[in-house]
Write a structure and sequence with these properties.
three-stranded antiparallel beta sheet; 13 helices
């Protein structure tokens, strides 16, 4: 959040008196973001400016929020389905192409881990080694704190909503390769330039766009590919109950479950599905360690 303010807000209005900033000034800042175009980012930055003013007003440092009135002037956010490959064959072909292309090894490892776990990229890229449990045991688990998940604020501070992700054998191999490549980093996927910072939020996406997948698949698309593939298999096998379990694996929590939510619900079946998906996706793929030796850019 602070980086978005440092990049887009502070250079233009950061040095002005808090009471001297007007709505047109804020709108000019937001318009520049919209024109990149980054419509969703623009909306988030407006919300962050409003949050600053909420604190300022409560503290007696400001009388009004100049970011509030411009909400009606923002460009519309048109949400569409994230581009995603629909078949297992296409998914394998994309991974083969990505992993054969010149790119930094950590980018390739992050790409493979996204595909195996179907996690949101923002969660994956900021993973700390301290979140991973039992990597040398039979049932390794990735315990992601609720504070890092896409949740309502009241759930983010509730440890019951920590996300438990069972790791397949192939996912564990990716982690082993990441550890071998950056053995001293607290981050699993550190930046190639700064070991104490995570891999760039655009690294995997740029790699995909550089290849033939432009407009066909984005990093977030692995969630859809996983869901489509495993739901189709569940239906073909007469396992209708797997649909709810697959939703849980994507961290989709039904409304109204606060009192009964159990982060370990259906863990044995979730582990089986995770391993089945990994076996299907990684068929005839090289081991994760091989990604450390491929061509770089």
């Amino acid at each position: 959040m602070i980086k978005s303010l440092e990049r887009d807000v502070f250079p233009k209005i950061g040095a002005l008196p808090v009471k001297g900033i007007t709505s047109p000034m804020v709108l000019e800042v937001i318009r520049a973001i919209e024109d990149r175009p980054s419509i969703e980012t623009a909306r988030r930055v407006r919300q962050r400016i409003s949050a600053v003013y909420a604190y300022a007003i409560a503290s007696g440092l400001a009388d009004a929020d100049p970011a509030a009135p411009i909400r009606a002037a923002l460009k519309p956010l048109i949400k569409g389905r994230q581009p995603a490959l629909a078949t297992l064959e296409e998914a394998r072909a994309l991974l083969r192409q990505v992993e054969a292309a010149p790119a930094h090894p950590m980018t390739k490892l992050a790409s493979r881990m996204l595909a195996l776990t179907a996690l949101r990229q923002g969660v994956l890229r900021t993973t700390m080694w301290s979140e991973l449990e039992g990597l040398d045991l039979d049932e390794p688990v990735w315990r992601i704190p609720a504070t890092r998940m896409k949740l309502k604020l009241d759930r983010k501070i509730d440890p019951r909503f920590d996300f438990m992700l069972p790791l397949s054998r192939q996912a564990t191999e990716v982690l082993e390769a990441a550890r071998a490549f950056a053995p001293h980093s607290r981050l699993v996927f550190p930046s190639q330039r700064h070991a104490h910072k995570p891999i760039s939020e655009n690294a995997v996406g740029y790699l995909y766009n550089r290849l033939v997948s432009h407009g066909r698949h984005v990093p977030h698309g692995w969630r859809s590919t996983f869901s489509t593939t495993m739901n189709e298999r569940a239906q073909a096998q007469g396992l209708a109950g797997d649909r709810a379990i697959i939703d849980l694996m994507l961290a989709h929590i039904p409304e109204g479950v606060e009192a009964s939510y159990n982060r370990a619900t259906y863990m044995p079946r979730r582990r089986e599905i995770a391993q089945e998906w990994a076996d299907l996706l990684m068929k005839d793929m090289p081991p994760a360690m091989a990604l450390l030796e491929g061509p770089r850019r």
